Task: structure prediction
Amino acid sequence: MDIQKSTFRGSWEREDAMGFNALPEFAFIGRSNVGKSSLINMLCNHKGLAKISSTPGKTQTLNIFDIDGKWQICDLPGYGYAKVSKEKRFLFSNMIKHYLEQRENLICLFVLIDLRIPPQTIDLEFINWCGESSIPFSIIGTKADKVGKNNLEETLKIYTDKLFEVWVELPPIFVSSSEDKTGREDILKYIKECMKKDK
Result:
């Protein structure tokens, strides 16, 4: 898939304020600082599209990006950031839950996991909740360049073994790096295939 133009459409605090949009939508979520904005920018080949911050918890709204007028990306707030207030964590979780359960044009949610660290309980719980709630999703392992080719297979096996404790069949899993664009073609190809199936 060749992306020609990607633009920021706007930010919303509630799914029901976003209005109906018939364009296929793909959402991205993960723990704070998992590399969500960097991945979106890498996929779109547009460095300044999603704002990157070294401060965890920076994304606090539902941010929509238009891709060639054919599909959309929704950048969701990161989960599990302890330094925001309990009230804000509650608001974020409700915002995310409502969006995922109600968004009619959502085709697939990409759940991002950091390949540099062992499987985190909060990631596994969120992935399991997606399955229980029938949310269509795939998994993207980020920061593969920091793991090294020799350790990548072992790292993925640790994750898949952990998931197989609950899952009989795993969702698609992609490996990515925003630094060297690993996974870009595979993820965009998958998005294209999802849109074909949705027609």
In short: The helical segments are 36-44, 86-102, 121-132, 149-163, 184-198.
